[in-house]
Structure prediction request, 187 residues.
Amino acid sequence: MFTIKENIKNEIIINKSKFITFIYKVENKQMVNKIINDLKKEYKDATHYCYSYIIGSEKKANDDGEPSHTAGIPMLNVLENKNLNNVLAVVIRYFGGIKLGAAGLLRAYSNSVKEAIKDDNIIPIIKEYKIKIEFDYKDINNVNYILKDYKITYKEFDQNVIYEFIYKENNYPKKIDNYIIKKEPIN
Prediction:
């Protein structure tokens, strides 16, 4: 599974209609809604704001007034064919006065997304996990040494010490196994 390294903007003109494509890396639906609302404010005189996204196992496509299945679904198909996840594609259309027909719209929206996503901007998704550990105060120096290269997100000092930290799937600190309370995937 892959995602994008950085957000993208691309523009193409087909039969006098302008198609402005945005590809965003997203984590949740709240981000999707904010991005779409912001784009609608910025490009308030556009004719259509079609979009599709894949976040985890959730997929959505929206034609925004274009004939059914001529915009959102073709855009979603491009994201799926590139095996992308945590990605939102938005294509803003300014109608140029020439009707493209269903087949023309399908090609226009899918090509807009295809042209925007360059292979050098596609990166693998590396899963992250959050681990909660508990240990005795006498082990604090050892645990701090083991976790010196990890992001510790929580510390609690009570009868024992509790840390929560994040690691990437290929970078698990094996020496920490004895202290694990809870391990859960983040993405």
